[in-house]
Amino acid sequence: MIREGCFEDLEQIEIIIQKAKKMMLLEGNDQWNEDYPTKKHYESDLHNGKLYVYEENGRLLGIACIDDQGHHEYDGIDWKISKKPYLCIKRLAVNPDTRQRGVGLAFYQYAEELAKKRKFPSLRTDTNGSNKAALRLFERAGYSYAASESHGHFKEPFVYYEKNVGQ
């Protein structure tokens, strides 16, 4: 079940973040590191009412920020659907011990329902091109490719996806 996160979740969130970062590195994905994301990012998401968790039997299986503000580079992307408003999914992490159970896809479906409820016409998301699991997830969730852009030290460009939710 997906619900809004709370400060009591932070200990489990930190464990998921660390496990996810280790798994990403093992898979050759250098998108996340010791500087991003951190517990402070998720604390800020909590303070702003934008953090959601997937909970099953009292255990968190995943976390995500669902926000009406994208990353700073979003303003320069040539989005195909619409400029604003939109909801954006950021900092999605699934506990590697519980992968392949549809947790990531559930967050994208939840965000779509939030967008419809709040009358946002589109959803946006992005990942580093080395994050093959996220790219597969975007496709399964029905997102369309919008653009790609190189950033900083990353070997692969970041890839931007969007979805029209029909508002």
Overview of the molecule:
- The protein is an alpha+beta fold and 167 residues long.
- The protein is built from 4 helices and 7 strands, in the order βααβββαβαββ.
- The longest helix has 17 residues, at 10-26.
- The two termini are 25 Å apart.
- The mean pLDDT is 92.
**How many angstroms separate the termini?**
25 Å
Total helical segments: 4
Radius of gyration: 15 Å
Summed over residues and divided by their number, the pLDDT gives a mean of 92
Kindly report the oligomeric state of this protein. Answer: single chain
How much of the sequence lies in strands comes to 25-35%
Largest sheet: 7 strands, mixed
The portion of residues assigned to helices is 25-40%
What topology does this entry show?
Layout: E1 2-4, H1 10-26, H2 39-47, E2 51-56, E3 59-67, E4 86-94, H3 103-118, E5 122-128, H4 132-140, E6 144-149, E7 158-164
Parallel strand pairs: 4-5
Antiparallel strand pairs: 1-2, 2-3, 3-4, 5-7, 6-7
